[in-house]
Design a protein that fits this description.
This protein is an alpha/beta fold and 200 residues long. The chain is 34% helix and 13% strand. The chain has a 6-stranded parallel β-sheet, with helices on one face. α2 runs antiparallel to α3. The radius of gyration is 17 Å and the shape is globular. The model has no long low-confidence stretch (mean pLDDT 88). It binds magnesium ion (MG).
Length: 200
């Protein structure tokens, strides 16, 4: 049977955090300058930035995320596009599984546009948009959200979570205290993850 690999979009395939900061910095100008490369330990960006930079910075971040067109403006993450194509080529049943930014009027459509523009219509058909990832069946979920399995309304996930991190990039939380069993530091580690799970 083909193994199903679910791949998160934001901060795994598309550079969501990086674009949020770049856009928010433009909104703020020089009035409140984000410190690049600061060590973040918590995944929730809004609460971390409220502590580190104050309410004005948080409002600029929310304005950036809620802007029409934001969700289709993100640059791809290094190695992600090739990794998705490779998974498909190697016979995996791979899907993009993404949570919509609720309240943004066109986020879901923009995400589909992004996938179609960057990866083509084949991957657009393999994109699942859901605010409950636990209900989506799979063998692996590659996701940067540490508590990806905790939002299932009482259901248990069928997939094993691989925590996707890259501590070399600016704006990424280190999550050093998080007891993730499986971690993947960037897409170059995909072959190791697949081998460890006896998928290769
Ligand atoms: Mg994500």
């Amino acid at each position: 049977m083909r193994m199903t690999v679910l791949v998160d979009l934001d901060d795994v395939v598309a550079d969501w955090r990086g674009q949020v900061i770049r856009d928010a910095q433009k909104i703020l100008g020089d009035s409140n300058v984000f410190i690049h490369g600061r060590d973040y330990e918590v995944w929730d960006m809004i609460s971390e930035y409220r502590k580190g930079f104050g309410e004005e910075a948080v409002q600029a971040i929310l304005q950036a995320i809620n802007a029409p067109g934001f969700h289709e403006s993100l640059p791809p993450i290094e190695g992600a596009m090739d990794a998705l194509q490779q998974l498909d080529h190697d016979g995996f049943d791979a899907y993009i599984l993404t949570w919509p930014w609720l309240g943004h009027r066109s986020c879901a459509g923009e995400k589909l546009n992004w996938v179609r523009d960057k990866l083509g219509s084949y991957w657009e058909k393999r994109t699942i948009i859901s605010a409950n990832k636990v209900l989506v069946r799979g063998d692996l979920l590659i996701d940067d959200r540490p508590d990806a399995a905790k939002h299932g309304n009482g259901h248990d996930p069928s997939w094993q979570h691989i925590l996707f991190t890259n501590e070399d990039w600016p704006f990424r939380p280190h999550l050093s205290d998080h007891p993730a069993t499986h971690r993947m530091h960037g897409w170059a580690e995909l072959p190791r993850i697949l081998q460890e799970h006896k998928f290769l």
